[in-house]
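Here's a chain:
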Amino acid sequence: LAALLGAHSTSKGFGQTADMPSGTPQDSTPGLWDVKYYQDTLTPPAGVVPFPSDKVLAAHPVVGKEFSGYVGRQSKWTGDFGKA
């Protein structure tokens, strides 16, 4: 699950809550297939609004451990994403 969530690296939110203006990216490099999403979900920079469900999963005792393990580890994530 944590690996598949990385696809949100290229996403923007539409039709979400008032806390997430339409078109808000989930990481600071929208459109790039990278692992920046993981760090930006844990510590969102200005202009990035993670999905509430992603924040909950990032803090989950099991999923969160895997989630944090992808921070800065592009090759690990790429391999795990492909397997998932």
Notes: The first strand starts at residue 12 and ends at 13.
